[in-house]
Amino acid sequence: MANITTIGVQYVIWAFTLLLLMTYGEMTFSPLIPPSYPLAVRTPYLSAWLPGHMALNLPSSSPQFWFGNNLTWSVIARVDGHPYTLFGVSNELDGSEGATVIGGRFTSTHSIFTLTAGPRNFTLDFLSPVSPKNLLRQSLPLSYLTVMVGVGHGDVQVYSDIDSSWTGQADNAAWNFTIKDDTYLYTMSPNEGDTFVENDKEQALWGETVYATRSSAPATFSYASGPSFDIRSQFVHNGSLRRSNAPWSADGVVGFAHDLGVPENEIGVTFVIGHVREEVIDYVGNIQTGYYRTVYPDTISAVSHFLDDYDEAASESVTMDLLVQQGGESSYGVNYSDILALSLRQIYGGIELVVPRETMNVSDAQAFIKEISSNGNINTVDVIYATFPALYTLSPNYIKLLLRPVFNYMGSRLYKEPFAVHDLGTHYPNATGHVPDGQKMPIEECGNIIILTYAYQIASGEDDFTLAYASLLKQYAEYLQKDGKYPTKQLSLNDALGEMANQTNLAMKAATALTLYGKLTHQQNYFIMGKSIADAIYKDRLGTDPNGTYFTMQYGKDTWFLVYNHYADVLFNADIFPKEVYEITSRFYPSVRKPAGVALNGDIDWGQTNWQGFVAATVYDEARTMLIADMHAYISNGLNQAPFSDRYWVQDNNVDQTNTAGHDHAFRGRPTLGSHFALMALHGGDRWQGIGDD
Description:
By secondary structure, the chain is of the alpha+beta class. The chain has 18 helices and 26 strands.
């Protein structure tokens, strides 16, 4: 592919733009201004965002890593010799002016902004592909920025740069420049970083940041690296760069410039941003590398392929966007589809696909997920559970890929507990095993392992996983049989609440998992066990108030709780709890709603959208409408700027000004938003039939 995009891809991008121009005469954003726009969100270390309110001043606004630290990424254009800043230029440049923002739009895979610069319109299209079944495409830790130039008059040049803020060690880095055929690539890396170590903002201190583009016309293309002011001034004054590379400096950038002449039709140039690591995960001493390296072992070939793949990736993204939009709307309206669209890149951007570096065997492919922002654990089983509705809907094989390293670890001599493990390591990317004093959630994780295995089998139609790990599944079912009805003092998925005995939600998970294990293995006795626990919880009032109007947090206590652990009963039509259970919760939750939503329980002032998403799929009518409306109001209220935080205040907490109803609380950028797909999942699993599936 040359630097100029094809007509087909132009149509993809300008179709979105036309929606903006048809709708808005002034600066307008659709479908809403989110807390933060995903720009390049592909892995835990390639995760760049733009706080929503900054889109109004896009020419001078800098993107941020998910943690909140600023990154340098700029776009400048010249039209008839006059320079305009389009994105990320916070300092004044001689003679330049900021372009005028027209509007913005996000879909499930794109964030698109339109600006006017003199007689030309420009569109910046940030595309992070989500390709659930094409493991090669999804495993590439790269993302696209396409700058489209609209019809108009005057000659046009386009420039873009980044700096070493992307490396995790901005004050001590190095850069290199490579040309292969018509692909031009800069790589930047920290000088003194250690493998598998992060900085205090959770950026990787090993590997390489990449920035690349393509041109088949060297005479109209230029590049340079050096001090920021010098490189940008070259472009501002000349419309080109010197094609030279200075030694690295702390204020340095690497930049590209395309001279497009006087285009008569819409035209575009594409840049690639990425973060690559040869050593991706330490899995109990077995080093894992990126899945894509089985085909493209070096960075330049991977980047060249990614550029070659742009047209298909962009075409596939339209299919994905339509699936999410239409699936969301048909499940529960436009508000719901907005929530899903904002969630999708964040979900898959927390997962990496790998193979053993020593063998490069694709049949041993695995996936690892980071518990971003909460504590950094790797392959936390309850985080996989919180993510599974999206995976069940779009890519059930991911459930298998995420659980494979968990099962293999639990089946080894490295793990000796009788119950399922909580995580594979205290901090990503070190899957070096669960530490003895780490978190333990016996009932929670035993239940999650069984439910996830069942979900994979139902969605995929394959029983390979059930057969391969039959002994472990039986062991955990027996543990639930023994301890599931009266859980001892322990943590649950909501570990912020601390250890408690006789948690109703845990017993619900045990009941559900035992019943599904019975279905999984065709053993009626387990179905009966699960049903008996469910009957005790509800019919015998073990886990409800005396009148059976709501479920309690603990047996015999008054505090109500947002019960989400009977979701699998609804999803799989398991007939564990009677219909009236869902009728009483549908009546109850609207009665306890606080100003911005339903809290996790009656004693606190915060709620979580992931559990609200599960519950929305189990309730009816007013309660479902309320939950979806509250989640939508939260992401559109203008109070927040973090990547979609799944925890927020539903009532003023009176501690400080950020603890107000509708303000996010503690978390940011976590992949646990997969549970937002719980309603869509009710319409069936494995719904993605994309382009170029493996």
